[in-house]
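Practice problem: Short-chain dehydrogenase/reductase SDR
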Amino acid sequence: MTDWTNWNVADIPDQTGRTAVITGANTGLGFETAKALAEKGARVVIAVRNTDKGAQAAARIRGDVDVQELDLTSLSSIRTAAEALKARFDKIDLLINNAGVMTTPKGTTADGFELQFGTNHLGHFALTGLLFDNILDIPGSRIVTVSSNGHKMGGAIHWDDLQWERSYNRMGAYTQSKLANLLFTYELQRRLAPRGKTIAVAAHPGTSTTELARNLPRPVERAFLAAAPVLFAQTADRGALPTLRAATDPGVLGGQYYGPDGLGQQRGAPVVVASSAQSYDVDQQRRLWEISEELTKVTFLDL
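Answer key — structure tokens:
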């Protein structure tokens, strides 16, 4: 049985004076992350595509919560959101790249990127780069990107068909995007390390009962939703704990990856875990970074 006294929301330090921007925080893991940080005193910005849903989520949270329109499937929207956030806040202490889509039917973003890779990785890469000068060198600032233990289920990045144009597999595209989250985090941390003030960290929620699984093929989805709560899943508030620990624990080090401590990392208390061998491949990290800059036309200031 999991020992939840290992680390839980009671262990989050006071966040008064800190500003946290969280993507996809109107529901599920993002909402629980926003709620916990706001209740600890942070000024929280819920960055979401649907601002009405964002406002409804903000109204359910006790604390200082704002809403920012952000569509991660559109580089134009990302640029507009970044400019608005930079105008409103002199500094951003926490950027939590939480939003994501999972196993969607074949589709593309507004800029022609495969939907899952474009949303989960390229959208967050661009947002991070565009907000970077408001995060960089702020003492204690962190960039936390939410990956998935599912990144271990796929092969390497499809360098010869990055956008899955020749043959589309919804799970393969999803696992590629989640591997990309880790490659991005580790490369970002290596570039940040010499400066010593801002760190990049990754987390994954294990298996949590959220809306993310809504695009699973129907028979699989029904079986998953019926069995998950009983067999191995955890609630969204517990699934958010690895992200919250990565974002707030004073002992966190740049480049660490947090996930549940239970069997198969499906559920449990948040601890440092290992990602796949290929996620630590420096050549792949650098290659993805360069390609991401080319595709998004976003470069990181001072790195």
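Discussion: The first strand starts at residue 19 and ends at 23. Students who identified this feature from the tokens alone can consider the problem solved.
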